[in-house]
Specification:
This protein is an alpha/beta fold. The chain is built from twelve helices and eight strands. α1 crosses α12.
Amino acid sequence: MKVAVTGKGGVGKTTFSAILARLYAEEGNSVLAADVDPDANLGLALGFTEEELDEITPISKMKDFVNDRTGASAGNKFLKLNPKVDDIPEMFAKDRNGVKLLVMGTVDVAGAGCVCPEHVILKRLISHLMLNSDDVVIMDMEAGLEHLGRGTAESMEQFVVVIEPGARSVQTYKNVKRLATQLGINRVRVVANKVRNEEDEEYIKSKIPEEDLLGFIHYNTDVIDADRQGKSPYDFSETAISEVRAIKERLEK
């Protein structure tokens, strides 16, 4: 199973990614959770402490390592477009609760342009994880659509868009689906989070095609409490776990 989770900022994609990853780990799967968000906080949702995460450098920020793998230097303008990346998870991933966390970071394309060493290594690494890794891969993408615009998502099997019951979130789903289709990705599913009541459910059902809707995660104060304490929601809410488990089963079908 290879899943890229995306959506607007603050909709709960990291919470969903973390619970989904831990569910797969509880089943005995080898799970790699990749954080591709510049505001990286997937580690906290998996159960790492802030002190542990402070010691992790995102792959995109390892300038010497990236330059070595891509052949980049001040005097060399020709990059290796297929750098070695298969050993990166073993070298840099950290394990917690049976899930391997790989903090990948992102590229400031406004300053560096799309063809830069960091972009090359991330695109190649994403492709490796999605096409060649034996792990279950849960990728927590950056908010918005930048990853689709840069083409780093071309190798992904499917997107799961986490939305809230609101017009802006629904618009994000439509944009992701449109851009993903242009990349040849035809499976774009939706998880509706922070759903308060039946009215919210009916709104979502009226806006999202039935075949794309994976399910609902209801507004949950236990999840909020976990976030305030910097803990994993998996350790706080049986209700959230049950709801994500049902979504997982539909995702696998």
